[in-house]
């Protein structure tokens, strides 16, 4: 079971280099399991026992099973995660031709660790909007092949490289894609039109715009002397998206279960398809149209906000509170912050801990050091938007926001097990 889950995650990560691809792959897996796609522009007819999903902006997805128990009595079991990760996004007019090299200007998306992006085999993927036969269309593309690199400057020319070198996001991050002869400008949009033709057999009249991200072509892998770890890009937070999907697919038909994977968490979630937008509430209100029934249902519901936690690093143990250093392969982490950077309270934490104990899943706690700033998640945002009780949890990882992160190879199975139990739990606190 563990090895099968880990390989499934590795395959999912490889197929999902951008939030658009992650959403598309989640949708494909849901459809294969019999979920019906809903269009927000249409009238919906949902019924007990039905399985549905809806996407927005091609980068966020909400999937749900309508249970047979009345919602006002049973509530809803929600699991939340996010589809985006820090990366390098291509600028609108990105072409740079300097000293015989073709480069692309990039904007840093989210709080990326920049140093690991150097000397990697990079490819490019995302969504392209184009005109064909007088109509505007969009399509996902993925070059897949390593087409770019950001070479480090030799240490002979940068003696400060190992002693606190500050990376300039504007001048040092543009990837190199090719050598070019002469002064004839390279047309990046023409390259995208060619990729549309190669990948989808689409002949675009003109590429109008795009949202494209560079990514590392090295696939995720189980590594370590004893295969203790999973190394890969975008573990934050596609790992939680994948775990939530596996749990939802195995859920029974008694309870109403929801998986919500929103976009833009890494930049604050304030968008139409982010957790700080109206998407989740609008979807739930279409399932529960009566105001009083909606409030009654929400007050009987619980959200598990699943986002990665900081595992205690053996080289930097002083970065953790000495009593709250989560270990890899020691189970999911309950994340707590008195200043509401996490939405956990004693009741929701107690319920999640109870679920773990009941299902023989190890569980840990994380509190940031009192002299350090604390990150946040979609948990407090969703809790404040819906008024739903929430527990923030996640799997411990190293190198969060790096181009290659590290998690424990046993922990995915732990998370899927407890989320499956949550979706099937007949009683919520």
Give the secondary structure arrangement, pairings included.
Elements: H1 2-15, H2 19-32, E1 36-37, E2 51-56, E3 60-65, H3 71-74, E4 76-82, E5 87-98, E6 101-109, E7 122-132, E8 135-142, E9 176-179, H4 188-200, E10 206-216, E11 221-223, E12 229-232, H5 235-249, E13 256-262, H6 279-287, H7 291-299, E14 302-306, E15 309-310, E16 333-335, H8 346-358, E17 364-366, H9 378-386, E18 389-394, E19 396-398, E20 405-408, H10 411-424
Helix pairs in contact: 5-10
Describe the structure.
There is one protein chain. This protein is α/β, with parallel strands linked by helices and 429 residues long. The protein has two domains: 2-85 and 233-424, 3-Layer(aba) Sandwich (Aminopeptidase); 87-216, Aminopeptidase i, Domain 2. Helices cover 27% and strands 27% of the residues. The protein has helices spanning 2-15, 19-32, 71-74, 188-200, 235-249, 279-287, 291-299, 346-358, 378-386, 411-424, and strands at residues 36-37, 51-56, 60-65, 76-82, 87-98, 101-109, 122-132, 135-142, 176-179, 206-216, 221-223, 229-232, 256-262, 302-306, 309-310, 333-335, 364-366, 389-394, 396-398, 405-408. A hairpin with a 3-residue loop joins strand 2 (51-56) and strand 3 (60-65). The two termini are 30 Å apart. The mean pLDDT is 96. Zn(2+) binds at residues 82, 156, 401.
């Amino acid at each position: 079971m563990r090895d099968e889950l880990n390989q499934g995650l590795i395959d999912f990560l490889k197929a999902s280099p951008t939030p658009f691809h992650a959403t598309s792959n989640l949708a494909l897996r849901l459809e294969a399991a019999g979920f019906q796609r809903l269009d927000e522009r249409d009238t919906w007819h949902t019924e007990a026992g039905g399985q549905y999903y809806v996407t927005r902006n091609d980068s966020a997805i909400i999937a749900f099973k309508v249970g047979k128990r009345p919602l006002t009595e049973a509530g809803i079991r929600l699991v939340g995660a996010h589809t985006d990760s820090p990366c390098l996004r291509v600028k609108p007019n990105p072409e740079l031709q300097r000293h015989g090299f073709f480069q692309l200007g990039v904007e840093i998306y989210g709080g990326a660790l920049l140093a690991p992006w150097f000397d990697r085999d990079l490819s490019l993927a995302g969504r392209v909007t184009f005109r064909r036969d007088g109509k505007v269309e969009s399509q996902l593309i993925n070059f897949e092949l390593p087409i770019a690199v950001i070479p480090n400057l030799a240490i002979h020319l940068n003696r400060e490289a190992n002693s606190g070198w500050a990376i300039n996001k504007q001048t040092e991050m543009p990837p190199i894609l090719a050598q070019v002869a002469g002064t004839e400008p390279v047309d990046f949009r023409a390259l995208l039109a060619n990729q549309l033709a190669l990948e989808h057999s689409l002949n675009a009249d003109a590429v109008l715009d795009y949202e494209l991200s560079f990514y590392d072509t090295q696939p995720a892998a189980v590594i370590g002397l004893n295969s203790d770890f999973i190394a890969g890009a975008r573990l934050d937070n596609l790992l939680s998206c994948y775990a939530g999907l596996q749990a939802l697919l195995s859920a029974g038909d008694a309870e109403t279960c929801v998986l919500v994977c929103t976009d833009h968490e890494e930049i604050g979630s304030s968008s139409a398809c982010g957790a700080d937008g109206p998407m989740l509430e609008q979807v739930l209100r279409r399932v529960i149209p009566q105001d009083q029934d909606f409030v009654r249902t929400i007050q009987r519901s619980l959200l598990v906000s699943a986002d990665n936690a900081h595992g205690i690093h053996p080289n930097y143990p002083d970065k953790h509170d000495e009593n709250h250093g989560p270990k890899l392969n020691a189970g999911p982490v309950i994340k707590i912050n008195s200043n509401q950077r996490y939405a956990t309270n004693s009741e929701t934490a107690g319920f999640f801990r109870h679920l773990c104990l009941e299902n023989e899943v190890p569980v840990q706690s994380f509190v940031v050091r009192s002299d350090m700033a604390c990150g946040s998640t979609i948990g407090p945002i969703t809790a404040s938007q819906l008024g739903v009780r929430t527990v923030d949890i996640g799997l411990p990882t190293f190198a969060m926001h790096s181009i290659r992160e590290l998690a424990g190879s046993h922990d995915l199975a732990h998370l899927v097990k407890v989320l499956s139990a949550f979706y099937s739990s007949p009683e919520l606190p």
